[in-house]
Amino acid sequence: MAYSEKFREKLLSKALGPAANVSEIAKRAGIPKGTLFSWIEKAKLESMSSQSKKKRGRPRKPSRWSPEKKLRLLTESASLSQEELGAFLRKEGLHELDLKEIREAAIAGLDPPKLGTRLTPEQEENKQLRRELRRKESALAETAALLVLSKKYRAIMGDEDDDTNSNYGKNS
Prior knowledge:
This protein is mainly α. It is built from 7 helices and no strands.
């Protein structure tokens, strides 16, 4: 059986009210209580769906909020008592951890940048190994160049087996 929208809304407002007896409301209206329960479930789902759509409009994570909003939250929350802080956090849709995260980020941003940061032991070892590798590559290139020059010298001066000392001083 089809019921009018106005009739449904009227019964739902009664059923969703404080201390409502759904079975009694359905009996007085002359409808099966299962029908009224299904209307209630559908209304709750629609309500949850519309609330989630509303929440999508604003960023939930404090990291996505503007710096102005973060600063406002910090300044307003700084002087509040514990009870007032709880009400403030609920009003803003925040958790205490969110506020702590914002505060820590602000403090970290106020620190001057550290000059000459210390390397980890792995980075230090890597740097040392690279330096040693460059030194050895340079020594290898130098040795290769000396070998090539030595071969060229021998080729220009003649055979390796010639004894140049035996001819020295004969014509003098």
